[in-house]
Fold this sequence. Notes:
It is a single chain. By secondary structure, the protein is of the alpha+beta class. The chain folds into three domains: 9-103, Acyl-CoA dehydrogenase/oxidase, N-terminal domain (Butyryl-Coa Dehydrogenase, subunit A, domain 1), CATH 1.10.540.10; 135-245, Butyryl-CoA Dehydrogenase, subunit A, domain 2 (Beta Barrel), CATH 2.40.110.10; 262-398, Butyryl-CoA Dehydrogenase, subunit A, domain 3 (Up-down Bundle). Helix content is 41%, strand content 14%. Bound molecules: flavin-adenine dinucleotide (FAD). Residues 137-140, 145-146, 170-171, 221, 225, 381, 383-387, 389-390 line the site of flavin-adenine dinucleotide. The site of flavin-adenine dinucleotide has 18 residues, from strand 3 and helix 11.
Amino acid sequence: xxxxFHYTAEQEEFRKEVRAFVEENAYKEPLDVVDPxxxxxxxxxxxxxxxxxxxxxxxxxxxxxKEYGGGGxxxxxxxxxxxxxxxxxxxxxxxxxxxxxxxxxxIHASGLMSFGTEDQKKRLLPHLLSGEWYGFQAFTEPDAGxxxxxxxxTAVRKGDVYVINGTKVFIGHSPPPIHxxxxxxPAVTDPTAPxxxxxxxxxxxxxxxxxxxTPLDLIAxxxxxWEVTCEDVQCPADRLIGEENKGWLxxxxxxxxxxxxxxxxxxxxxxxxxxxxxxxxxxxxxxQPISRDPKVQDLLVLxxxxxxxxxxxxxxxxxMASGQVPRVRYTGxxxxxxxxxxxxxxxxxxxxxxxxxxxxxxxxxxxxIGEVEHQVRLADVTHIGGTPETQQIMMSRGLGLGRGAAGG
Length: 408
Ligand SMILES: Cc1cc2nc3c(=O)[nH]c(=O)nc-3n(C[C@H](O)[C@H](O)[C@H](O)COP(=O)(O)OP(=O)(O)OC[C@H]3O[C@@H](n4cnc5c(N)ncnc54)[C@H](O)[C@@H]3O)c2cc1C
């Protein structure tokens, strides 16, 4: 089956319009090395400004309905947008990490879209889909990671507000001192109810009194991470997402999106692996191209195959999410598990091929402008969005092998 997109003349005209927007808003020169964990606040702010401009055109949430502030575009137009933004990233003229994200995070919009009441969707979604609001997904707690249902955060209804207490860790992306517009924060609202039936989800305004933000200094992440504490925070009751005590369903819709169920459209030549292969062909060690070594060739072939599997599954998931081909229940989980198993292998292969060079911080020697070093540091950080073991359990459920029948 061909998962590639084929475009009409009208869609190619649309591409020109997108390219003109990109040229107007991109940096004029390629960026120097930027550590994605330490994005300068100016770059963050430029990224946010571009997101709002995209929102004004309906391109920040191209696949969402216009009535909620989306673009109402079909999958081919969405694919054109994705391809053009991937190209400009390759040219290194676009803000990096979350600041450079060109589409609203499904992690934030999907729970609200799936389980929000019509009133909640009309009130809250336009702020997200227009790029006006930026939020932290605040699920993980010091004693509740994989076992999210063990969360200790509480929200107690008092008149027009819920009083929220608790601490979340490993969350967010923005560089200090920039705080989010809201915290997507699940909390226990009925301590007497069974697990999974006792939680509600909130979009807590990020600047309320009682919220404390503490930056975390991790070895590796995508963007900066934070610990956030709420102490008697008075969250307006109209920031509840979905029904009270049905928050587990809201967070599960979010996690399904986070695991990759929406898919990814990336141009054929954009991946780090393909650029790394080129680097090995064109760079000499001891008078010979690095790629001349048969052991290097073996490793590059394996990386290539895994890279192609990832790309094709990304396209397939996009095709499934946009209704082009029938959906399989475990599709997102399968992709997440594959990527999480592949990531450490990739880091090890980079180390085996390049040795200490791949960790060098000297701009003259820094390989592929820091992407290799970042990948090596990030290779074993497979916790994001759930560990490989969690994905494996979910995949087996998706196949009807384990408890329940849910997939990601
Ligand atoms: C870089 C980074 C970014 C993150 N970003 C966010 C974010 O933006 N928002 C957010 O809410 N969270 C975020 N997280 C948190 C992430 O979701 C958690 O780290 C993850 O869910 C695992 O939880 P934990 O760290 O508490 O590990 P634990 O749950 O304590 O797991 C420890 C180990 O035990 C294994 N394990 C646990 N239970 C089982 C089981 N039943 N069967 C088999 N093995 C099991 C796990 O696989 C893991 O290897 C981030 C984490 C990292 C590292």
